[in-house]
Amino acid sequence: MRVTKGNDHLKVKAVAGTRVVLLALDMDEASREGLLGFAVKRGVKGHEQTWLRGTKYFRDLVPHPDPKDDYSSRDQPFQTFLWSDYKAFADTNYDFTIVALYGDIHAFEERHKLEFSIRTEAEDDQHHGVWFNRGAIASHAFETKFHNKRLTDEMTDNVSDDGKLLDPETEWLSRGLAEACLKYINETGPGEGLRVCAYEFTYLPILRALKRALDRGVDVQIVYHDTKKDDDPNRAAIGKAELPDKVMRDGAETQILFRRTRTPIPHNKFIVKLVGGEPKRVWTGSTNFTDTGFFGQTNVGHLVTDSDTAKTYLAYWTELSGDPTHSIAVTNATKLTPNPPNVIAKKSIAAFFSPRVADNMLDWYGQRITDTTTLAMMTIPFNVASTILAALGKKADAMRLIVLEDVPTAEVAAAEKANRGKLAFSNGAILGKSFIKYKVGGAKVVPIANSDLDEWFVEEELARPTNNGHVFFIHSKVLLIDPLSDDPLICSGSANFSTNSLTSNDENMLLIRGNTRVADIYMTEVDRIFRHFRSRDIINHNAEAGEQSKWLELDTTGKWIGPNFKASNYKNNRRLLFFPEADVGTWSDSAATDPDPFADEKERAAAKKEKKPPQG
Question: Is the pTM of this model over 0.90?
Answer without folding.
Answer: yes
